[in-house]
Specification:
The chain crosses the membrane at residues 51-71, 78-97, 159-179, 191-211. It is a multi-pass membrane protein. It holds the Pfam family Lipid_DES. It is found in: Endoplasmic reticulum membrane; Membrane. This protein has one domain (20-322). Helix content is 56%, strand content 2%. The chain is built from 16 helices and 4 strands. It has helices at 6-11, 28-38, 52-69, 75-101, 109-120, 128-140, 154-159, 163-171, 173-184, 191-211, 213-226, 234-238, 266-271, 280-286, 300-309, 323-330; strands spanning 20-21, 251-252, 296-297, 319-320. The strands form 2 sheets. A two-stranded parallel sheet has the order 1-4. A two-stranded parallel ribbon has the order 2-3. Helix 3 (52-69) runs antiparallel to helix 4 (75-101), helix 3 (52-69) runs parallel beside helix 5 and helix 4 (75-101) crosses helix 11 (213-226). The relative contact order is 0.18.
Length: 331
């Protein structure tokens, strides 16, 4: 791993102008093998979460119901409720879609895909099918240049260079997260994207037709504010932004895991993506020596604050590796 002269710039309090570059494979595959060889009982945790469907159904129906109640509300009330309540539900559903991208609700993959489109409904924008395509590549090719679209683009990194720009970037980070793959590594839409799009637009039109634009605006605002300057959105930064140069994935062990499908257990998740979020805490309990020594967080809000205020941290604070490194390791 190296970063050349940029490391010296960081020591002087100046934001670096290049990513962290690693010349080894990502750490999770090797740690997975080590843990399973020592604790084979962890395999018993693999498989779907039997409560996933119920949890998703409750969140979807509750959010749509609240949207109908706000059909005649004032805009300030809609915004306040969207930030203080709806944002938590929609972000929960976004992370439910993340869970479903790993087929962790049903053993049959297509059932997870249908449930993902159902979970997508209150989010307002069709994304569940496309998300799965790119997210699985993030796991298989973590940090690989030109493949892992979770890593910011050079354009983002060169523009976001101070606290003001970082604040704007955080507010809009959901847009960067959603549109970055479409510009940098577009994939042709297929049959399932068309279904996802059709179902979502049908729901959106139905909401507008029967309850009006304010109900629809509540859903969109819940998605937007929940993915920006919001405590739950801290996981976008905490998961892989490098605050400690010798570590590229970080876990969060705080109370918001209860609302986010335990996505905070992110080292554990990348080590064992076949274990549902509801059981990831057991991985740390079974094999604590592999995780206790890693840097972790207890507050996502604090992570957002550190990201904005630390002059040495920005979009370049990500680990990257060349595709050839991963290819050689997989041969």
């Amino acid at each position: 791993m190296g970063r050349g002269e940029e490391r010296d710039e960081e020591e002087e309090g100046v934001m670096a102008t290049d990513f962290f570059w690693s010349y080894t494979d990502e750490p999770h595959a090797s740690r997975r093998r080590q843990i399973l060889s020592q604790y084979p009982q962890i395999r018993d945790l693999f498989g779907p979460d039997p409560w996933a469907f119920l949890k998703i159904a409750v969140a979807v129906l509750l959010q749509l119901w609240v949207a109908t109640l706000l059909c005649n509300a004032g805009w300030l009330k809609i915004l306040v409720i969207a930030y203080c309540f709806g944002s938590f539900l929609n972000h929960n559903l976004f992370l439910a879609i993340h869970e479903l991208s790993h087929n962790l609700a049903f053993s049959t993959p297509v059932y997870n895909r249908w449930l993902g489109m159902f979970a997508n409904l209150p989010i307002g924008v069709p994304m569940s099918v496309t998300f799965q395509k790119y997210h699985l590549e993030h796991h298989r090719f973590q940090g690989v240049d030109g493949i892992d679209m979770d890593v910011p683009s050079h354009t983002e990194a060169h523009l976001v260079t101070n606290a003001v720009a970082k604040s704007i970037w955080v507010i809009l980070q959901l847009f960067f997260y959603a549109f970055r793959p479409l510009f940098l590594k577009p994939k042709p839409p297929g049959y399932w994207e068309f279904i996802n799009f059709s179902i979502q637009i049908a729901l959106d039109v139905t909401v507008v037709y029967f309850w009006g634009w304010k109900s629809f605006a509540y859903l969109i605002l819940s998605t937007f504010v929940g993915g920006g300057m919001h405590p739950m959105a801290g996981h976008f930064i905490s998961e892989h932004y490098v605050f400690k140069p010798d570590q590229e994935t970080y876990s969060y062990y705080g109370p918001l895991n209860l609302l986010t499908w335990s996505v905070g257990y992110h080292n554990e998740h990348h080590d064992f993506p076949r274990i549902p979020g509801s059981k990831l805490y057991k991985v740390k309990e079974i094999a604590p020596e592999y995780y206790d020594g890693l840097a972790s967080y207890k507050s996502w809000s604090q992570v957002i604050y550190m990201y904005i205020m630390d002059r040495t941290v920005g979009p370049f604070s990500r680990m990257k590796r060349k595709v050839s490194n991963t290819a050689k390791k997989s041969e």
